[in-house]
Automatic annotation (TrEMBL), chain A:
Signal peptide stretch: none
Protein name: P-type phospholipid transporter
Catalyses which reaction(s): ATP + H2O + phospholipidSide 1 = ADP + phosphate + phospholipidSide 2
Gene Ontology BP, a term: phospholipid translocation
Membrane-spanning residues: 173-194, 206-226, 256-275, 295-313, 325-349
Major location category of this protein: membrane
GO molecular function, one term: ATPase-coupled intramembrane lipid transporter activity
Membrane topology: Multi-pass membrane protein
Source organism, top-level taxon: Eukaryota
Pfam families from the UniProt entry: PhoLip_ATPase_C
Lineage, top ranks: Eukaryota, Metazoa, Chordata, Craniata, Vertebrata
UniProt KW keywords: ATP-binding, Magnesium, Membrane, Metal-binding, Nucleotide-binding, Translocase, Transmembrane, Transmembrane helix
Keyword field contains Transmembrane: yes
TrEMBL record, chain B:
InterPro entries on file: CDC50/LEM3_fam
Subcellular location: Membrane
Record flagged with keyword Phosphoprotein: no
Transmembrane regions: 35-57, 313-340
Gene Ontology annotations of biological process type: phospholipid translocation
Designated name of the protein: Cell cycle control protein
Domain of life the protein comes from: Eukaryota
Length: 359, 351
């Protein structure tokens, strides 16, 4: 239509037709086509049957006015496809923003020219095609590639893997950080009951410094970069695998609490088993082995091993780099341990490295 | 605008295995047989180790006698700190029903003494104990960590400084054996060889000098000590000064509030070549260390040892329980696996 009122009328009629019989109207510039007879179940936004909405820029300008745009949005979301032709760049951005603001959905915009830049910027994910039209779209986008068909690979393979690496089974990248830090820190809580709540740390100070940086950072990094649950070919062949990402099945509150509980259980086992083992014990030649330093070293070693084995169990795709990082972290821990507890370094810095002889 | 093929090629990412996520890799597939055999092996291992540890711990003989209540009058005397110069001894007879074969070790055990307190563990000076920095003049922070036991009233540095050294356990315990119900003889005990090798030879060193009292000139003893550090064992220069074994053993802070520390080892000579024979014994204790103010307790422990350490059943039990739980899991998984194996070949699409 030529005015907002006309456009609104057309939209309303189209919506009614959606619930009605096989009818096509070609009034004005709004064309509504029904491709298949739809059944009588009338549930809002769950229309069975494939519909397409085709709207041109001139009508879109009216349809995007504040009182009409809700109708447009409802109608558009009931259709399988919406084609907007002859639109201006600003209108492209406005359409994307309409969907983004009023629907709880993640939006992706893909384009190749300078006129797509505002659309790319207003979507959640902007994809630019580098090619005939220049680099403007590429510079404004989050991802870019050379051909439109690579979008399939971006979503189904790399997007899926990325979600999987972050979240699957609660203890991939994000969950793992919570797990290892809970296991690391909560032992101090349990130890507090036995040290008069004097905030004495269970580990020696160097271990605390190096734990998150050196001993446990690399394996999880390797897992975050390289892990795959299915091969890329299978990801493309079975697009149903994409559904868990859309439904946010793998990282929600429940998974997070499971991860926390796992960390708490680990810290309990890590503290109380050495506590019981050290409780009334003496070395085989009578000497004192239930001292604080031996206990600290035992706790630290068992923590590093448990946490590394946990990530080894979680890794489903073992590249060379995964092996090197995981076993290398354990080896690094032991070599630093031996160095710090040696007689030589005690001679140089007696107050910084008092754990001489523990190993 | 036409792009030359060169320019479009230059933006192409490398086709290396690393960048194309095609590194050669092993995809870990946990099959039923692999998991089941792993659980079974783990269960066998844990059960085996657990049973061995339990058997070894059970073969140890240990006797513990708590003497805070028995020596009640001494305990009351020590509650008042002004009684420090009054000596108090107490004698505890006991009967050993079986011979303790092999090496016997005598420990003192404390209950409720928190050697793992944060400020307490910090309160020492390792460089002073190494003999290099006796008067702790150089390192400002050492004076801070040893406080308030770093300098005496008139400003002389304390050697050894710190709260750990000041609170040393100073009871003397002597074991006597009643041979033929006549005059009791003192059981010969060794004072040496009760510390870690690195403690005695690396961590603790006396300051270099011919005469220890000259070496420690300019320092004073800690406030709670009866004798200065260079008089701890006048007979044996290897056991005097900072190298005193009892001192070193005490300085190794314990991990928990209930701990036992090695005091003496049996010297297997005369009547005691096979160990401690059965019979009547008694402990003669010079009671110096006050524990009743903080509701702690003291006891003496006599124990034999094996390769797995003292009589601590916990580790053996933990292994056994883990082995049992693993086997339980194994059997239940095996049952489920056998049940599901009968359902043949239903091909299911991926999710």
């Amino acid at each position: 239509g030529n005015t907002a009122v006309e456009v609104r009328e057309e939209l309303r009629k189209a919506k009614e037709n959606l619930f009605g019989q096989n009818r096509s109207s070609s009034n004005g510039h709004v064309v509504f086509e029904k491709q298949q007879l739809e059944l009588d179940s009338v549930v809002e936004e769950t229309i069975t049957g494939d519909y397409a909405l085709i709207i041109n820029g001139h009508s879109l300008a009216h349809a995007l006015e504040s009182d009409v745009k809700n109708d447009l949005l409802e109608l558009a979301c009931m259709c399988k496809t919406v084609v907007c032709c002859r639109v201006t760049p600003l209108q492209k951005a406005q359409v994307v923003e309409l969907v983004r603001n009023y629907r709880n959905a993640v939006t992706l915009a893909i384009g190749d020219g300078a006129n797509d830049v505002s659309m790319i910027k207003s979507a959640h994910i902007g994809v630019g095609i580098s090619g005939q039209e220049g680099l403007q779209a590429v510079l404004a986008s989050d991802y870019s590639f050379a051909q439109f068909r690579y979008l399939q690979r971006l979503l189904l393979v790399h997007g899926r893997w990325s979600y999987f690496r972050m979240c699957k089974f609660m203890c991939k990248f994000l969950g793992y950080f919570f797990y290892k830090n809970f296991a690391f820190t909560l032992v101090h809580f349990w130890f507090g009951f036995f040290c008069g709540f004097s905030a004495q740390t269970v580990y020696d100070q160097w271990f605390i410094t190096l734990f998150n940086i050196v001993y446990t950072s690399l394996p999880v990094l390797a897992m975050g970069i390289f892990d795959q649950d299915v091969s890329d070919q299978n990801s493309m062949d079975y697009p149903q695998l994409y559904k868990p990402g859309q439904l946010n099945l793998l990282f929600n509150k429940r998974q997070f609490f499971i991860c926390m509980a796992h960390g708490i259980y680990t810290s309990l086992a890590l503290f109380f088993i050495p506590y019981g083992a050290f409780y009334n014990v003496a070395g085989e030649d009578g000497q004192h082995i239930a001292d604080y330093q031996s206990f600290a070293v035992t706790m630290a070693t068992s923590l590093v091993i448990v946490v590394s084995v946990q990530i080894a169990l979680d890794t489903s795709y073992w590249t060379v780099i995964n092996h090197v990082f995981i076993w290398g972290s354990i080896a690094t821990y032991f070599s630093i341990l031996f160095t710090m507890h040696s007689n030589g370094i005690f001679g140089i810095f007696p107050n910084q490295f008092p754990f001489v002889g523990n190993v | 605008m036409k792009r030359t093929s060169e320019e479009s090629q230059s933006r192409l990412p490398d086709n290396s295995a690393l960048k194309q996520q095609q590194l050669p890799a092993y995809r870990l597939q946990l099959t039923a047989t692999g998991v089941l055999s792993g659980f079974f092996a783990t269960g066998v291992f844990c059960l085996g180790v657990g049973i061995i540890l339990i058997l070894s711990a059970k073969s140890i003989k240990e006797i513990e006698i708590k003497y805070t209540k028995i020596c009640g009058n001494c305990a009351k005397l020590r509650e008042d700190a002004t009684n420090f110069d009054k000596e108090c001894t107490c004698s505890i007879p006991f009967y050993l029903s079986e011979t303790m074969q092999g090496n016997v070790y005598m420990y003192y055990k404390l209950y409720g003494f928190y050697q793992n307190l944060y400020r307490y563990i910090l309160s020492r000076s390792n460089s002073q104990l190494m003999g290099t920095d006796l008067k702790i003049v150089n390192k400002e922070k050492d004076v801070g960590t040893c406080a308030p036991f770093s300098r005496s009233h008139d400003g002389t540095p304390i050697a050894p400084c710190g709260a750990i050294a000041n609170s040393i356990f100073n009871d003397t315990i002597i074991l006597s054996y009643n041979l033929n119900s006549s005059i009791p003889i003192e059981v010969p005990m060794l004072r040496s060889g009760i510390t870690w090798w690195t403690d005695k030879y690396v961590k603790f060193q006396n300051p270099r000098s011919k005469n220890l009292s000259i070496a420690f000139a300019g320092t004073t003893k800690p406030p709670s000590w009866a004798k200065p550090v260079y008089e701890l064992d006048q007979e044996d220069p290897e056991n005097n000064g900072f190298l005193n074994d009892d001192f070193i053993v005490w300085m190794r802070a314990a991990a928990f509030p209930t701990f036992k520390k090695l005091y003496r080892r049996l010297n297997r000579i005369q009547y005691f070549t096979e160990g401690l024979p059965a019979g009547n014994y008694s402990f003669n204790i010079t009671y110096n260390f006050p524990v009743t103010r903080f509701r702690g307790e003291k006891s003496v422990v006599l124990s034999t040892l094996t390769w797995s350490g003292g009589s601590n059943l916990f580790l053996g039990l933990a292994y056994t329980v883990t082995g049992a739980v693993t086997w339980l899991a194994f059997f239940s998984m095996m049952a489920i696996h056998l049940m599901l194996k009968d359902r043949k070949n239903t091909v299911q699409t991926c999710i």
